[in-house]
């Protein structure tokens, strides 16, 4: 049995899109928050550009756990977040960094996701601010532009 610790998450401002990069240079120039290179290609999590993207395609909200970084050898941290969401039927896309996890949920299910996480004992805030902003915790968190 994995014992997890209650975590503090916050909803990052904005709406995001998850894409497989067709044009790597364009992907790198976009407002990305996460890039993951794997054998099948580059996956980009980037801010939605309302002018270019419009309302089409999947839109995701991001929950960030990096305000209180945890050690890599601490078991169950990610499972403690995605387990309750899976039990609640909330789809996720996850990108992890050295210090934190970025859990994306469909934009239309963010309220439900927050309720599920809170009922599992986690703290979830909707305060503004990006990781790495002056005066904000999480300066070593998710990389982005």
Explain this structure.
- There is one protein chain.
- Strand 6 (93-96) and strand 7 (101-106) form a beta hairpin.
- Helix content is 21%, strand content 28%.
- It starts with 7 loop residues before the first strand and ends in a 20-residue tail after the last strand.
- The chain has 145 residues and is α+β, with helices and mostly antiparallel strands.
- It is globular and about 40 Å long.
Total count of strands: 8
Q: What composes the largest sheet? A: 5 strands, mixed
Helix content: 10-25%
Mean pLDDT: 81
Question: Given the helix and strand composition, which structural class is it?
Answer: alpha+beta
Task: Flag low-confidence runs.
Answer: 131-145
| Strand proportion | 25-35%
**Cα-atom radius of gyration:** 15 Å
Amino-to-carboxy terminus distance: 38 Å
**What's the tally of helices?**
4
How would you describe the shape? globular
Order of helices and strands: EEHEEHEHEEHE
Descriptive tags:
145 residues; alpha+beta; five-stranded mixed sheet; 21% helix; disordered C terminus
Question: Secondary structure elements and their pairing?
Answer:
Blueprint: E1 8-11, E2 16-20, H1 24-29, E3 32-38, E4 41-47, H2 50-53, E5 60-64, H3 77-87, E6 93-96, E7 101-106, H4 110-119, E8 123-125
Parallel strand pairs: 1-8
Antiparallel strand pairs: 1-5, 2-4, 3-4, 5-7, 6-7
